[in-house]
Design a protein that fits this description.
By secondary structure, this protein is of the alpha/beta class. The chain is built from 31 helices and 35 strands. The longest helix is centred in the N-terminal third of the chain and has 27 residues.
Length: 898
């Protein structure tokens, strides 16, 4: 018998031929395999393998014959030594592995992200009509968080989706066999003993949901109690009023500061609850920002504590709301996010990093990361996205993550990091919203003070700067505690921050000499200088924690060598302004951090101020470049003396001490802008010098005497113009995010643009203009003369809108966007900017990108109407600039401008 094709073999068996284990059948199969092998060998005889390289450690092979080439990548690739690697295994949201038969290594993951992405796209099944397969894959990924270590769930052949697996528990393992299906309207279901229920119900049972909520509730109560204890033992505050009786107000916007809305914090939490139920194809990241002392930690802990208690205490079925897993950066500097999460769920005894991901993917849990910008120390600023990217990728296009950052500067770094990830072909697909906690209103401050029995007239005994500080909950509480203690009568003698530091230093001095038998090891002045040194060391390292050796070094800089001063060396660790925490017991060296971020800000200002005199200019310039200064540090420097500070800044500018290799760092520019903005706000006058190379969040000149003002090579997220009749301002190569005019009839004849106009949008008496032509017309109408020519001055509205769309995508760090299949309009987010030129322009923009092969369009699974994911093959920045010589980009712009 001779069989030459698999079809012949199949037909032979189905028509009563020999069974597969029959010797005659085995011989036929072997003959067939040999024939196929021989045919393949003959076809490949004249081919040669060639390699191309787009990554130093990964070469892409192809089979080449005459003018034909068959690509083998990404199923094969070769390393830098020429070892040919064969794809072995891949699971969604996991790195693929390859066999390295010639390298002595059984499995290895490719180094370049392009190979991983290409393999993912190659092996991911088409999304249409494949809901059951996607469901099976998702179950497999989710079970990885609950399965016995080292094992994998086994998928059985059945009409349903059936997984057999062993669940890990604290008492051992439990054998399980679980049935799943897609119910009506493709609802994901699990067969419970009582019948088919939702897949979320299944995950709650796996996690032992109420028990998890109860144990997390205990954990969050412990965190809250620790906050209260810290206030009592380290700040000398009473136990009463530890929870601020104000529901914080937040301003919510997109990452590019568009689509604003105002709500209170409880409404924000309700938004999060709704967002976890939405499978929109990309995870959502909420950034909670605000000044140090504004109450971010309290708000997040309260939300997590209340939700855990609500679920744990519900009498019957648990509320259909997610648990909030609160983790914080304090004591965790340099730890990985996985380590921090595992520590946070340790109390549950049955969750880990992988199971938390499964719960987050399915809308049952939301991760709250407090102080994320400090979690990885200084490295967090260098690659703000890198530390969060693996978590977002693991969410598989679903879920919500809430992170707090201690400065708005971090958001700029995050956005910059997003753009860099796109340019390096490692894009992070996520939507972003910013929730900025607002300072208390005067009414809220008054109500808070009254709640302690203090008359509001006491507030007005403070000077203007201190009254402004009361709008931060931390300082409002500090004022109340000082007033109740009866220690303070003359509020004009010393500022509120200085009183707080003085109290703090007195407590520390007494602790260092707690036995009462010796003179103080360090007096208050020496302690203050030690803390200045510590703050400066932290600024240099980019971390808010230091090792014990750095603590000793900071003291030695004040009192000399500690050799022979063992009593001082041993007593340093009792300083209550520094918390002593072990990361994981005694195995990790202890590190020290200020009890509150505002103490760091104040002592950092002290350290900077000592370098303001002329002889310290070099050190002042160094500190400007090293770390971002928050408002508390800037305001403390202003209080130390505006004249001296302005003289120092003007001297730096004249001597170009902030420039390195012809460039000024983003940190230096940001600090420079914050200092100038604060000085202008305090003096109500624009300095006589040219402000050069500064970056402003908001530069408010409304009530400022501005004569011959010049901003050269600056950046301002918002510039608010003077409202008086007599002022003069020149913008020279300066980028303005929003130009704000309070009055519609404001005369702008004394506003000058040198070389070019770079204004993204203009707010005139509440009316917003965003088209370049509209902005220029409004400027001309109000007297701006000799407006320079600009490439954007074009009558081609399609080209103008295309530039606008690309700029928005670039600024938002986006490399993909999800649209509705029916009308090509955005299906997610608050992208009102896509409608600035009307829906037809946006639709044409998408069409032209597709025709030029600058994007790929793929269907995606999502609830509701059909949706498509537009994924950029060339970054929006490269398309907009059109300087790389890419033929596709060139053809795209030719078509747009035709």
């Amino acid at each position: 018998m001779e069989l030459r094709t698999f079809k012949q073999l199949r037909d032979h068996i189905s028509h009563g031929g020999p069974e597969p284990d029959n010797p005659e059948c085995k011989a036929a199969v072997n003959s067939l395999i040999q024939a196929i092998s021989s045919q393949i060998t003959s076809v490949l005889t004249d081919f040669e393998i060639r390699f191309t390289s787009e990554h130093p450690d990964v070469h892409r092979p192809s089979l080449n014959f005459s003018n034909d080439a068959i690509p083998l990548w990404p199923l094969f690739y070769a390393d830098s030594d020429g070892n040919l690697c064969l794809f072995a295994r891949w699971r969604p949201n996991k790195a693929p592995s390859y066999l390295w038969p010639n390298a002595g290594v059984h499995r290895q993951c490719p180094e370049d992200e392009a190979t991983r992405n290409a393999l993912h796209d190659f092996l991911t099944p088409p999304t249409s009509d494949n809901a059951a397969l996607r469901y099976a894959q998702d179950i497999n990924n989710d079970l990885a968080g609950f399965v016995e270590r080292g094992e994998e769930p086994q998928l059985s052949e059945s009409d349903d989706i059936v997984y057999t697996w062993r669940k890990a528990t604290s008492e051992g393992t439990i054998q399980r066999r679980d049935h799943f299906r897609l119910g009506p309207n493709d609802e994901r279901q699990w067969r419970s003993p009582a019948g088919w229920v939702t897949y979320q119900h299944y995950l709650r049972e796996l996690a032992n949901w109420k028990m998890v909520a109860r144990r997390l509730s205990y954990s969050f109560h412990s965190i809250d109690k620790r906050l209260v204890d810290d206030e009592r033992t380290r700040l000398g505050w009473s136990d009463s009023g530890s929870i601020h009786p104000v529901n914080a107000t937040v301003n919510v916007t997109d990452l590019d500061r568009e689509a604003p809305s105002t709500k209170n914090f409880s409404d924000l939490i309700s938004n999060v609850d709704r967002d976890v139920d939405s499978n929109r194809g990309t995870p959502l990241v909420y950034f909670i920002t605000g000044e140090a002392g504004i109450g971010k930690t309290r708000a997040m802990v309260d939300a997590a504590k209340k939700r855990a208690a609500e679920i744990a205490d519900s009498p019957d079925k648990a509320p259909n709301k997610p648990l909030f897993l609160y983790v914080r950066s304090t004591g965790q500097v340099l730890d990985h996010l996985q380590t921090v999460i595992n520590a946070a769920v340790n109390a549950t005894q049955n969750l880990n990093d992988e199971s938390v991901k499964a719960l987050c993917r399915n809308g049952l849990m939301v991760l709250l990361i407090d102080g994320f910008d400090e979690l990885l120390g200084g490295s967090g600023y260098a690659d703000a996205v890198g530390s969060l990217a693996p978590w977002l990728e693991a969410l598989g296009g679903r879920g919500v993550v809430v992170v707090s950052s201690r400065s708005s500067y971090y958001l700029n770094q995050y956005r910059s990091s997003l753009q860099k990830s796109i340019s390096k072909n490692r894009p992070v697909d996520a939507r972003h919203r910013i929730a900025e906690i607002q300072p208390w209103t005067q009414e809220e401050v008054t109500n808070f003070v009254r709640s302690y029995g203090i008359d509001k007239s006491e507030v007005f005994r403070l000077n203007e700067q201190d009254r402004e500080l009361l709008h931060l909950p931390f300082f409002a509480r500090a004022f109340v505690e000082m007033r109740l203690s009866g220690e303070v009568d003359d509020w004009q003698a010393e500022s509120l921050p200085e009183r707080l530091l003085s109290q703090y230093l007195r407590r520390e001095e007494s602790k260092l000499n707690s036995d009462g038998r010796h003179t103080a090891l360090l007096d208050q002045q020496q302690l203050r200088q030690t803390f200045r040194n510590i703050a400066e060391i932290m600024a240099q390292s980019g971390e808010r924690e230091i090792d014990p050796s750095d603590l000793e070094y900071a003291a030695e800089m004040v009192v000399g060598d500690l050799e022979g001063q063992e009593r001082l060396r041993s007593r340093l660790t009792v300083l209550c302004g520094l918390s002593v925490d072990a990361h994981d017991g005694s195995s990790t060296p202890r590190r020290f951090t200020f009890q509150h971020e505002l103490f760091y800000d104040q002592f950092l200002a002290d350290a900077i101020a000592q370098y303001l005199p002329a002889q310290g200019q070099g050190h002042f310039a160094r500190m400007l470049r090293e770390s971002h200064w928050r408002p508390a540090t800037v305001n403390a420097l202003i209080r130390s003396g505006i004249d001296q500070l302005q003289e120092a800044l003007e001297s730096l500018q004249e001597r170009d001490l902030l420039e390195r290799d012809g460039n000024r760092s983003e940190i230096a520019s940001s600090n420079l802008g914050a200092l100038w903005a604060a000085m202008i706000s305090n003096t109500k006058r624009f300095p006589h010098s040219v402000l050069h190379g500064a970056t402003f969040e908001v530069l408010d000149l409304r009530d400022v005497d501005c004569q011959d003002g010049v901003l050269r090579d600056c950046v301002a997220e918002e510039l608010m113009l003077p409202s008086s009749l007599h002022w003069d301002l020149t913008l020279d190569e300066t980028q303005i995010g929003q130009l704000t005019l309070g009055r519609a009839d404001l005369d702008l004849s004394t506003l000058r643009f040198a070389n070019s106009i770079n204004v993204k949008q203009m707010l005139l008496a509440g009316e917003l203009a965003y088209r370049p032509g509209d902005i220029r017309n409004r400027l001309r109408e109000r007297g701006v003369e000799s407006i320079p020519a600009d490439p954007r001055d074009s009558h081609n509205e399609l080209a103008e809108s295309t530039e606008h769309f690309l700029s928005k995508l670039e600024h938002g760090g986006e490399n993909s966007i999800i649209i509705r299949e029916s009308d090509s309009q955005p299906a997610t987010g608050h992208k009102k900017w896509t409608q600035h030129y009307g829906p037809d322009h946006w639709k044409s923009f998408i069409k032209q990108l597709e025709q030029a092969e600058l994007v790929s369009i793929e269907p995606m699974p999502a609830s509701g109407s059909k949706k498509l994911r537009i994924r950029f093959q060339v970054t929006p920045k490269i398309i907009r600039e059109n300087t790389t010589g890419d033929d596709r980009v060139h053809a795209f712009w030719e078509q747009i401008r035709a």
